[in-house]
Amino acid sequence: MKSGPDIAMVASLVGDPARANMLTALMNGRALTASELAQEAGITPQTASSHLSKLEAGGLVEPEKQGRHRYYRLTDDDVAGVLEGLAGLAARTGHMRVRTGPKDPALRRARICYDHLAGDLGVQMLDSLRQRQLVRQRKQDIELTAEGERFLAKHLQISPDMLSHPRRPVCKACLDWSERRHHLAGTLGAALMQRFAELKWAARDATPGSRVVNFTRTGEKQFAALFGSGQD
Amino acid sequence: MKSGPDIAMVASLVGDPARANMLTALMNGRALTASELAQEAGITPQTASSHLSKLEAGGLVEPEKQGRHRYYRLTDDDVAGVLEGLAGLAARTGHMRVRTGPKDPALRRARICYDHLAGDLGVQMLDSLRQRQLVRQRKQDIELTAEGERFLAKHLQISPDMLSHPRRPVCKACLDWSERRHHLAGTLGAALMQRFAELKWAARDATPGSRVVNFTRTGEKQFAALFGSGQD
DNA sequence: TTCATGCTTCGATGGTAGCCGAAGCATTGT
DNA sequence: ACAATGCTTCGGCTACCATCGAAGCATGAA
Q: Complex ipTM, two decimals?
């Protein structure tokens, strides 16, 4: 009775936007925890859990228990290859991701990722830092330059000793779910977000549990002055 | 705002069982008409039309008008390659197509494809004919051998002159939707089905519009005696 | 023209699956 | 032992989409 490979089964796994976001977030080869993947996809942990068990059953991802975390990675390069192929087909027809994950535009623009800024503005900030040589990035690792330290001290009153932490890195690249571009995590990312709040540039949304970050009118201007890309 | 290729969009196209069946039916490179694809997928023409327009919008298939038919083919080898990749992933996880297209098991076992027998039994019959050298198959073309003619005359009272037709070939391979294996079409396929009905081995289901073919108890035995594969 | 065939569009229906709230395990830290 | 964190399971809700009937266009045949 078995006929051929059930290509619809595996294709439908990739066909769901939330799962597709998780998979593309895993395309860099690194393993991510279930809750990180939930953040990337913009869904709650329980929904992500359901998706991940389906992906696991379909053989697309593999779990790895570590303490109370569950790390997931793509099973192998074959999976990555097929995903690349699908991306190629999608790219040439001009179908780009416009509205992946959360529907809320505010959530896509600026939100909290753990304790740092994510969303369009988060990506834009790291882009700006990188372009002006304030940080140097190599894959996942980000390093603060001397100019970067001066910049932070001058404009935001952030000194290097505020950033040292026994276990946590100062800078770290964190994949933004809205695409495969990074935003800034680590103690610096957290310190920046905290400073934005202190300066009343931005504040987390009042509704409990919301990850949206609302920028004030002046905060948006100041932010654009420091990290703007000219087009906005 | 555009981010990356929308892999979920194209994957969800392949993710629907009906569309996946159409695509696999097109994997041999030949172009098929819309109604043929509907038959392969086990759906009505209007549903197939909807699916095909989506596949076309997604750039997976290309239409070609010819008379009052619309032939569809895969856009290029890239599409076929991705489909192969998906099939590979599905195959190694052991997920095979068990219940593609129509839910009705009877429809999968034996049904009418135009005027000839399709379904598991149709595929099985052609397999048997080929294995016993009663026909010779090369790709899409099937040829009746001398032994084949004797076999038909002796067991089913079908003579070669009954099969000649000005435009229609005697034998023709027709892809069975349940997988990429062929069943027998052409005037011989039609003559066989007609003979099965005359001998009261099988009859089309009474409910109007149904394509199910019901075999009688004795008919099933006789059929198995002529075309059985030993395992059934 | 008139009819038949192949395909498409429209409208309505139903089944499926994604989603989240609440609660339940498991593991780690204090 | 107790609390906190990470993840899972369960139940209900909602939205989407595949499906088909009926009708509307085309094209080709008589």
A: 0.54
